[in-house]
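Q: What does the assembly look like in three dimensions?
Context provided by user:
Components: two
Sequences:
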Amino acid sequence: MSIKEKVPVTILTGFLGSGKTTLLNRILSEEHGKRIAVIENEYGEVGIDQGLVINADEEVFEMSNGCICCTVRGDLIRVLGNLMKRRDKFDYVLVETTGLADPGPVAQTFFMDEEISSEFTLDGIVTLVDAAHIDQQLGRSDESSEQVAFADVLVLNKTDLVSDDALDTLESRLRDMNRMTRIIRAENAKVPIETVLNLSAFDLDQILKRRPTFLEPEYPFEWTGVYDLDAGKYELMLEEGPDPEMSLVALANQGESEEELKDGAESSVRLYAEKANSLDPGNTIPYGEHINLKLEDKGNKSFILNIEKPTKIGLFTQHTAEEFNMKVIKSYENKEIPFNTERFWQAEHEHDDEVSSIAIERFGDVDPEKLNTWMGRLLSEKGVDIFRTKGFISYSGNPRRIVFQGVHMLFTAQPDKEWGNEPRRNQLVFIGRNLNEKEMQEGFDKCLI
Amino acid sequence: MPDIEPFSPRGMFHEGWTAKVNDYAIACGWALKGKQFIVGDVAGGLFAFEGDTGKIIWKKENTHSGGLLAMAIHPEGEIFATSGQDGNVQIFNCDEGKVIKTLDLGKGWVEHLKWSNDGLFLAIASSKKVYVFNEVGEEKWISEDHPSTVSAITWSNKNELATACYGRVTFFDIVNNKTNQKLEWQGSLVSMELSPDGDIVACGSQDNSVHFWRRSTGMDAEMTGYPGKPSHLSFDDSGKLLATSGSERITVWSFIGNGPEGTMPGELCHHTEPISSLAFSNKGMLVASGSRDGSVVASFLKKDGNGDPVGAAFAGDLVGAISWRPDDCALAAVNAKGVVNVWKFKVRTNLFSKGFK
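A: Here is the predicted structure of the complete assembly.
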């Protein structure tokens, strides 16, 4: 038998009225050289003008073991099972689900059914959101938050009906729920076709390329500057800024590599968890302590940094240096010492929705067996609440990185490209409901070698 | 040496004929008592070949717009029925391929067709409904909506039809329009076979298991541990062996004695890729299997379900369907490239075996 490419499948979800059929017709009418077969669960009033459209009622099949993670979509198995005999007639499949569809069983179908997974590959889940109504829908139904959680691409549609401010707020709410997703604003479902088809959305590389910081955890500080200082007395000068105070941790011997910066950040997170000591201007900043600079006074304020022998000092500050025009000045010489390195961090903020994303990023190797046991337990206990999982893992002794992706309890792990000179590390993202970030990070840390 | 075993039967596929149809071949069968071989391809092409030589007798194209889904040859072999995505069923005569009757069942796909053993009725499944027509295409019975799309139908006796769907198997007396029995089980049933006496109901389920019911005793059992969903099931003509497959392996359950519950099934591991078609010979304990890898194997089984291959051939590509000639002296396989292979089949045993000549 010849080796065949698997046919990519895009799932189109979204509430009734969010513009799915409009988008579908737009995709089908555009010149893109693809022959697309459409499986339509929702028969809207707007017809679809194309040859290969198959109507099928949504049939959700639960298994006798009662596990929702094994639930599949019978209609898709049936229709795709037939379509795979007609491979010469199309090269792409689009599935338009009903507004109330749970994307879980749809995605699981591509993992659970061997016949389907041997011929088709889930390219991505595109969720349309009606910008004017999604806020209410998210409060009212689980389906809409699940559709957001599962999305590789969120098309924020009907933006013409909503103010820019409201859109920004909405976008950040959606981003909190699903940090992996790409958000596209649109009027009348007008989006470039390449943003919804051929996403290889399950590929984490693609996401990292678009948004390199998305895996990052959130920190109680926004900025770090590393200063290379000789022995002597220095002043930390701040002008007036947005806040009458600012938290800060100063660390001695702070390295400048990404790994060292993250180590410093981890230490600072622990220090930030302790109660801050207030420090008035003119006083000396202690090292390795959480302090709160008092900045109520008008004009410039300065704090003292004492350096006994040459070292690199890392300042982990609640706000960015720019906001206070913060400078390090060598006393007596009145010379500004610029930072050697700066690093911005994803700032912490409140999460309102139950659905959220958790990211774990760790350097080093993991023990495959320990990881398997941990993942197995995690997914069997929390699989119902974990919608999507994606990531790379560095298995000890394996020259290739392991890519894995999952839907609820199901996950696959496959060797990917070789690590080469890249530092070996692990990057994992979970999107789910009521996830305990700390517990999951600790669990993962135990798998590290 | 008291325990000399008779030597295993030897058999082989002998050269027969090959032919080609236009598209992926999904259905085939013997008509006119083996004088004719009919093939249906996924695009709706129908082709009739001379059974012995492979010479084309007639062909039809685009019989169902959207494509063909099922074909069933009448037990007498004079007529056959086809169905497709267009929601139609057509009844043809085998001689010339002329349409005798077209039945329009609406919009849904018509996925399953089964003639009753005496050939008086044709059962048709389309979406959630099942219809029964007589030989001349008159409607005799329609079911209510099933809870889901009907996934399999088969006749348990001349007036009783079994249907499978998500969560249940139902037996309908289609003459008196009543429901005789409902066997319920939460699972998506993807295939169904009945033993020839109609007592044992076997269903393959999406959760990679086979579920059995014995109608006479009401006992049921679940056989788990399949690597894939058991889409392919076949009973031998005595109803003692059930061959099942959801992967490259064939698992054979023996109903002899107290089995199959608590017994070890027979296993046949002759293919490298999952089975795509499976059929017992019309008589005797020979099972033929076709695989996605293009291989076709005939195995001779013992009472415990184990057995040995007695012949093998390569069909070139994924085997879409296989069919034993009514006298079991030829085996046909059609593949995903539209190639038709017919092999003469002979088995020699030291004893004159019942079932094949």
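Follow-up: The longest helix of chain A spans residues 258-272.
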